[in-house]
Amino acid sequence: MRNHISCLGFTINGENLSGSKSQVDYYIMAIMWQDTVIAICQGFFVLSLVPMVRGHEKPPLSTCLMSVTLVGIITFTLASLKLWFSVLTAAMIGLMWIILTAQKLQIRRNANEQ
Predict the structure, then answer these.
(1) What digits encode the pLDDT tens for the residues 3-27?
(2) pTM of the complete model
(3) Residues 6, 13: contact at Cβ < 8 Å?
């Protein structure tokens, strides 16, 4: 017997799970631990961005824009996998980078006015 996992067909090890609630629950629990681990790691990443948001020095604008774009793609990908806790924390990371982008643009405007 070959190992087979199918997300959309609810098949694990060649068995159809549509009629077996306990196996479906097991499958959902197997996905949930990844969501939790990703969300916790991303939560620490959000916390690591707080000093940068509160501080005076900001990263280059290109870094901010690239981070917003890539985190947006990651957020969309996590949503397509229905990893909702990870989607929430990825959106928080994206928000932090949007704030940093706005702060960097404001610093540039202030420097140009002087």
Answers:
(1) 444 454 555 555 555 555 666 666 6
(2) 0.73
(3) no
Instruction: Give the number of other Cβ atoms within 10 Å of residue 78's Cβ.
Output: 22
Distance CA 22, CA 92 (A): 34
Q: Rounded CA gap, 75 and 83, in Å?
A: 9
Task: Please check whether residue 27 lies inside any domain of the structure.
Answer: no
Place 68 in a pLDDT band, splitting at 50, 70 and 90. very high
Distances (CA, A) of 27 to 24, 99, 106: 5, 38, 48
C-alpha distance from residue 99 to each of 18, 36, 52, 79, 95 (Å): 45, 25, 10, 22, 6
- The answer to the question of residue 92 being in a domain is yes
**pLDDT score recorded for residue 21:** 63
Structurally, the chain folds into a number of domains equal to 1
Number of other CB atoms surrounding residue 90 within 10 Å: 25
Question: In angstroms, what is the C-alpha Rg of the chain?
Answer: 20
